[in-house]
Amino acid sequence: MNCLLRSIRLGLPMSLLLGFGLICGAAADDFYQGKTVNFIIGYPVGGGYDTYSRLITAHLGRHLAGHPTVVALNMPGAVTIRATNYLYNEAPRDGTVIGMIDQAIYLNQILGTSQVRADAARFSWIGRIVSNSAVLYAWHVSPVKTIQDTFAHELIVAAGGVSSRLNWVVLNNVVGTKLKLISGYGGTGEERLALERGEIEAVSQPWPIIKTELAHWLADRKISLLVQTGADKNPGLPDVPRMIDLARNDDDAALLALFSTPSTIGRSVVAPPGLPPERLVELRRAFEETLRDPLLLRDLERAKLDLEPLPGAELQTAVAKAGQFSPELIARARRIAEAH
Fold this sequence. Notes:
The chain is α/β, with parallel strands linked by helices. 44% of the residues lie in helices and 16% in strands. The protein is built from 16 helices and eleven strands. The chain has a three-stranded parallel beta sheet, with helices on one face. Strands 10-4-11 form a three-stranded antiparallel beta sheet. Helix 7 links the parallel strand 6 and strand 7. Helix 4 packs antiparallel against helix 14. About 4% of the residues have low confidence.
């Protein structure tokens, strides 16, 4: 399939296609030859972001024209804000630097997080690997066995990620849960160790990670699944409520829906804004091919990880739509976020 046809399929506007359609194939073929692509990971080693990122880096190079080396580089700091700002403001805008940042990037922007120096809608979204409805789970020694128990009992929750912290803040303020938030751990690996040591009582992680990496905890009833954070329920968890299911009225439901939007982004690959159009086409094409690669699918099966892809053009549209909430709702959300 030539580059112009791929461009149309990947959703670039016709105005851009006419400008480069006849030459983009040669440009893509030549550009990556002998180059290295740095894949920036906004979290430390370990956990869902790192796991999915390293799976992509292991296979993406074979599908890019010129077969460049793709190197995973962890850039933790300020809950991926460091990596987000780097990709948006400092990284080369030529397709040699891509990465994975926190799924709550647009929510943070909507809420006016001062440290974020980026516009999520202007990033070049390459595509989604899997959506993410995280699940909050409690250690077996806690008196909390269901989310309803948190209305009567305090639960000490690790809240290192931006998205998770916002979720628990809004639940406390909107529906009255008693979640005590503890930050400072270097990732979910450290949080799980803290859980076993009794320093905290609960952690949240994506369901695909829980059901694979923590299968022994589930089998031994070491953890209780409390609540799902995404807009849609995870398959296999029909009895675990979503945050939005806890709403007491329509206004609360709309607010909880806003805080559930990061699950659509989930684990997605992004590039700096302003990429040459032919480079964006090539990265999206290679990404889609990578997700169909039998070797990647084999690795996902071995790791027992899920795959729920979304093409880059559709993801770009979804990110832009994430900000289409009423000013009144956004103002209420900001007041809640700023209160803690």
